[in-house]
Amino acid sequence: MTQPKNSFPNIKTMALVAHDQKKDALVEWVQAHKSMLSTLTLYGTGTTGGRIANETGLNIECLKSGPLGGDAQIGAMIAENKLDALIFFTDPLSALPHDVDVKSLLRLATLYNTVLAINEASASLIVSSLE
């Protein structure tokens, strides 16, 4: 088993994910931090990644939609130590049909001590640490 990370990493790779009701907020946040994010290798789940690429012009590798395996793909990247940070704007007020996948992804990020933000405030702190 790969050992979890023990210290704050030099962030080079980041995944960007958002629940449906939070996609607009994530796209706006990415736009506000575009210059710093452009220095990273970015990944995103299906619709979210596509919107970010189209609306910000950033280069982002789009994986599958979250419910169709995108959350699992990002989880696998975490388990293989191929992802330094996860920005996941969650919607705590919506019931999700793929809640099990979301919990698994967050569990892996916690287990492997991956830098994780679940809202704009924590995501902004992560980006400010890159400067």
UniProtKB/TrEMBL annotation:
It comes from Amylibacter marinus. It catalyses: dihydroxyacetone phosphate = methylglyoxal + phosphate. Belongs to the methylglyoxal synthase family. It is an enzyme of class 4 (lyase). SUPFAM superfamilies: Methylglyoxal synthase-like. Catalyzes the formation of methylglyoxal from dihydroxyacetone phosphate. Gene3D superfamilies: Methylglyoxal synthase-like domain. This is Methylglyoxal synthase. Residues 6-131 form the MGS-like domain. Its EC number is 4.2.3.3. Pfam families: MGS. Keywords: Lyase. Substrate binds at residues 19, 23, 45-48, 65-66, 98. The active site is at 71 (proton donor/acceptor).
